[in-house]
Design goal:
mainly beta; 52% strand; 7-stranded mixed beta sheet
Length: 126
């Protein structure tokens, strides 16, 4: 089973940037989807970005973050990153990294993810 630990959250002003990191352990051979999700108070958890690298690279971004956020992972897949630029107050949420068994474009499907980090808070002020 995969263990995930997020870091890099904090408070920034609108227009600023943050880079979230997710340390991954317990990784074994096989195909994994990786992703970032977020949840604001009173809201359901939503997918932000997902990635699969294992024979080509497949990424997916929510419309709300497209062009502003970039998901990437270290080659050994022991770390996942989310570069967040041009942050907006509506980006304020708890951000979670997640992993699940899957491959390719299937990684955009939320049901794939069954391993979760504890979350890191991102707060964007006006």
């Amino acid at each position: 089973q995969v263990q995930l630990q997020e870091s890099g959250g904090g408070s920034v002003q609108a227009g600023g940037s943050l880079r979230l990191s997710c340390a991954v352990s317990g990784y074994t051979s096989g195909s994994y989807c990786m992703g970032w999700f977020r949840q604001a108070p009173g809201k359901t958890r939503e997918g932000v970005a997902t990635i699969y690298t294992g024979g080509g690279t497949f990424t997916y971004y929510a419309d709300s973050v497209k062009g502003r956020f970039t998901i990437s992972q270290e080659n050994a897949k022991t770390a996942l990153f989310l570069q967040m630029n041009s942050l907006k107050p509506e980006d304020t949420a708890m951000y979670y990294c997640a992993a699940g068994r899957g491959y390719g474009t299937a990684c955009r499907q939320p049901y794939i993810y069954n391993n979760w980090g504890q979350g890191t808070q991102v707060t964007v002020s006006s």
